[in-house]
Amino acid sequence: MRILNKGITMVEIVCGITLLGLVLIPLMSIFTDVVRQVEIAKETTIATNDLKDVMEKIRTTALSHITTDYPDGAYIDENLLGAYLLDNEKIKVDYPNGVDANPLEILVTVTWKSIIGDTRTQRLSTLRSELL
């Protein structure tokens, strides 16, 4: 006697859905991790661009005016550089060797709160000196 298979049973459907779930759940976890890493990379790029912007402003400032326009340990006024795009972003200028050093070492630090809630920091440093 021949039995004709005219469809799928409920057990086959449940097994198929279970296997599909076992494959999709880890993939969704990987996807959310990748999206989070992309957002962190985007934030880091924005912070680096803000640092470059500050360094460019400092580079175009006369050496004799740098320490008065950008006081040691002071945060940059956001109106001076335009709107920041990062949450709680602060940019600070420091002079590790003192304001009277020659060459003048300038350290610019940006700090912000990332999308995952931790505090992130980027730094750029340069030297300026008077021509002899």
Could you characterize what this model shows?
With 132 residues, the protein is an alpha+beta fold. The chain has one domain (10-128). The chain is 46% helix and 19% strand. It contains three helices and three strands, in the order αααβββ. A three-stranded antiparallel beta sheet has the order 1-2-3, covered by helices on one side. It is rod-shaped, with a radius of gyration of 28 Å. The model has no long low-confidence stretch (mean pLDDT 86).
Question: Which features would summarize this protein structure in a list?
Answer:
3 strands, single chain, rod-shaped, 132 residues, alpha+beta, 3-stranded antiparallel sheet
Summarize the model shown.
This protein is α+β, with helices and mostly antiparallel strands and 132 residues long. The chain has helices at 10-59, 63-69, 78-81, and strands spanning 90-94, 104-113, 119-128.
What is the β-strand count?
A: 3
Structural class: alpha+beta
Please estimate the helix content.
40-55%
Low-confidence stretches: none
Order of helices and strands: HHHEEE
Major beta sheet, strand line-up: 1-2-3
Rounded to an integer, what's the Rg over CA atoms?
A: 28 Å
* Distance between the ends: 106 Å
Number of helices: 3
* Largest sheet report: 3 strands, antiparallel
Shape: rod-shaped
Question: What is the mean pLDDT?
Answer: 86
